[in-house]
């Protein structure tokens, strides 16, 4: 695999930067690289609204933007008595997040939220973190209870120029459409994940994909031949979560790649009951002796 991933040192700095959430039926793209229609969110980015008047998606965005503006007040959107962290490089509890925010002061970090969706109390964001000398593609998943973030998962990977396909890791589709097809889209991705990725039954893989399919995973070559080739070095061991809304589906999986145990987040965009785009991040799972919490990656 030609995938450039985070080293242990970088993960300890980077994966702390993910505490977000997104709770509106829209997708936003701030990358400037999309050819899709962008459905804008009418809610404000302000963190001054009361808990009752601001949506979960805006709370999540505000938490992310705190890495730019060092606004620790966003912790009011997190449950101080119950905040479970699944980023193994980050400690539990809100106080640990405040310390992380402080450590990024004056570092010039830029956070662009590219696309996202909600699945009931779960919120998914796909973002681009720019640290100046390198950038990452990062997925954040939050669980909310009574308007407060209570749990967080993430998966991050350095953006590499050494891609085996022509597509950016972060660009293109961001339009949330086809509400009526939600159940069918989720079922198709779930079947593809279990039959093709996990069980490696690739003989009829083409039936899942649109002729317009765009591959954004830098370690996977274009079209279905690239997926077959990638599966020679990747084994999906367990599917932990599938989250979805309308035409977007996120799959959170545990896998073995050439460097060892890893977490893979696969995001799919569907159109006419076919997969038309795929983004992914792969992150090495550190040995348990290096964990900053005991909550497990998933």
Secondary-structure topology with pairs:
Blueprint: H1 8-14, H2 56-69, E1 84-85, H3 94-103, E2 110-119, E3 122-130, E4 135-145, E5 148-158, H4 182-198, E6 209-215, H5 223-230, E7 235-245, E8 248-257, E9 260-271, E10 274-284
Parallel strand pairs: 1-5, 6-10
Antiparallel strand pairs: 2-3, 3-4, 4-5, 7-8, 8-9, 9-10
Question: What report would you give on this structure?
Answer:
It is a single chain. The protein is of the alpha+beta class. The protein is 19% helix and 32% strand. The chain has five helices and ten strands, in the order ααβαββββαβαββββ. It has helices at 8-14, 56-69, 94-103, 182-198, 223-230; strands at 84-85, 110-119, 122-130, 135-145, 148-158, 209-215, 235-245, 248-257, 260-271, 274-284. The protein has a five-stranded mixed β-sheet with strand order 1-5-4-3-2, covered by helices on one side. The longest helix has 17 residues, at 182-198. It is globular and about 50 Å long. The model is unreliable at 1-51 (pLDDT under 50).
Task: Please state the overall shape, judged from the principal axes of the Cα atoms.
Answer: globular
Number of helices: 5
What letter string, H or E per element, gives the SSE order? HHEHEEEEHEHEEEE
Give a quick account of the main beta sheet: strands, pairing sense, barrel closure.
5 strands, mixed
Strand content: 25-35%
Helix content bin: 10-25%
DSSP summary, beta strand count: 10
Report strand order across the widest sheet: 1-5-4-3-2
**Whole-number radius of gyration?**
18 Å
What's the pLDDT, averaged over the residues?
A: 84
Uncertain regions spanning at least 5 consecutive residues: 1-51
How far apart are the first and last residues' alpha carbons, in Å?
Answer: 23 Å
> What class would the helix/strand composition place it in?
alpha+beta
